[in-house]
Give the backbone structure.
Amino acid sequence: MSAAMQATPLKDVKPFKSGWKVHVKVLHSWKQYNPVHGDTLEMVLSDQDGCKIHASCKRTYMESKGRLLPVGAWRHIQNFTLSPSTGMYRATDHPFKMSIIQNTAITRSTLINEDMFLSLVDFQTVLGGSLKTCFLIDVIGQVMDLGDLETIQVSGKPRMKVEFTLRDINDARVPCCLWGKFAEILYEGCSKDEEGKPICLIRFAKIGRFRGEIQITNAFEASLLLINPDIAETAAFKQMFVEEVNPLAICEGRDATLDLEEVKTIQDKRDKWMLFPKRTIHGLLESTQVEKCLVECKVDSIDSDWGWYYFGCCTCNKKVVKVGTLVKTIHGKEVTTHLWWCEVCKENVSSVSPRFKLHLIVKDDTGETKLMLLDQIAKGMIVESAETLLNGSFDELEDPTDLPDAILAVIGKTFTFGISVEKEHVLYGSEIYKVGKIYRQSQVVFTESANGESSESDQDLALTSGENSVNLIDNEEHLGGVSTPSTTPSTKRKGGWSDAPPDFTSTSKNLRLKTIKVEK
Ligand SMILES: [Zn+2]
């Protein structure tokens, strides 16, 4: 075999011999446990034509040969065996799989080519159900409807899981579920993204089925997840997003943008919360089974005993406890690092961020109850992020009754909450319910579509800003020790904030009251 041997395109390699030479880029690699061979190094290789092949390197050759195949590198690979590509998780559609053997020679290539050789599949095709599910695919989309990061017991071991929807550039949407480290990476990516809706590229993803519906998941460790990858597709998405938001610029502010998004969510049949029954608070409290339901009610007050934020570990998202502050002097300057103990990571961590944890007392005509909202959900009702409200502070809460205006602003507003009734409620009488979804009152959730929404939005916004000023005044009165119990009557009005007109009236009252005080 001469070194000058010509490279063969991957599409032409066949199992009848091992003396092939190919010129390939390592696109992806992962370790896999194989009951026969122990740990193996699995790879996806691509040639310059974008033809891909799955390659495997046994533990025996991992040190001598696998080490020479880092992700992103172009290599000449000479001498390897080929076997049929089989199974339900095929990383490529190549009919054969490459095995690195004892006399495989790996040499460097001078080629630099940053192409990722994506094989993107649009969601219409995925949902069409005609694709062979044994072949893993590449998908890119914007994350919508992010669920909670849940811990599920799988064969007695805890595994992280997160469900969400991806929408592609044509607005086709496909339900997704990621497990393990992929779930954590996605969840963290969403919390770091400005809009909470990053562009997500899942390479070597599995088309699965869950309760009869097509769902995209990770193929164990074989998948690759990239958040906001620096590629043309991401730029195209961002551009689309800008175009989507701009027509609403006239409304200014996040409320209008969120509303539009929520309307879309409501129109989306796959929003699973829409399938659950609507209950009154009385009905919720009387529920004798573990279930999810929707409850429309008004925020009566914030239960400040619980505080309103916590610091979460940026690695695992779990709550951390402050253990100390490290002050180092570097080049004559004092640098302060806060240290936190993470019970899950079992170590002191310094990378933490504040997140909402809100406890609300809500009421309707039938009763009252307590709701708990974690960060992702609370973000849907509070205009500012926890980080902004804390203004960079890493202190734990001193005075729980000192609530920011942005949080107080939700008092008196009506929402429809998606609520989980758990075993602890049914059997052990727990009184706090966790919220998994929020709809604003301005959307009629069940009976009608959002007709006339846009024509009314300007007026709605005017009323909303009116409310904001009321809240500022209310807040001053709270601080002064005078509480102003909410006496706003509940009214129903299609397509707008149901409580807007009464609040607007009370604005003028409060303003007058204020004026009188000043005159004294
Ligand atoms: Zn942690």
Remarks:
- Confidence is low (pLDDT under 50) at residues 243-270, 442-520.
